[in-house]
Amino acid sequence: MRNIFDQYEQPENKLTHALYSTLVNDRHLIRPFLTWLGTPSIPPRTQLKIVEQQIPGVAPQNEDDGGTGLPDMCVYTDDGWIVLFEVDR
């Protein structure tokens, strides 16, 4: 099994990837985590989707394209509900 911390070089991206991996592998943790953060009006777990290093609904860009910054992680639904995560040192 690959180490979840070797995906990225920046410490904040390592942290986000570990959180993303945890939430994707145990989806029952998503709502309690969002509640702990104080997120209002959390949709049912079955509607929640998670992505990292991309904006939902936007095709990932090549880093060489000079694209804009991306959120570290997003939890969202297809109907427009979204929580963006940006970890800073």
Q: What would you say this structure looks like, in words?
A:
There is one protein chain. The protein has 89 residues and is an alpha+beta fold. The N and C termini lie far apart (28 Å). Helices cover 26% and strands 13% of the residues. It has two helices and three strands. It has a three-stranded antiparallel sheet, with helices on one face.
Please tag this protein with its features:
alpha+beta, 2 helices, 26% helix, globular
Short description:
With 89 residues, the protein is α+β, with helices and mostly antiparallel strands. It contains 2 helices and 3 strands. Strand 2 (73-76) and strand 3 form a beta hairpin.
Note the overall shape: globular
Number of helices: 2
The share of residues in helices is 25-40%
Largest sheet: 3 strands, antiparallel
- Distance separating the two termini: 28 Å
How many strand elements?
A: 3
Major β-sheet strand ordering: 1-2-3
Radius of gyration: 14 Å
Q: SSE order in H/E notation? A: HHEEE
The class by helix and strand makeup works out as alpha+beta
Query: Beta fraction of the residues?
Result: 5-15%
- Give the averaged pLDDT, no decimals: 83
Low-confidence stretches: none
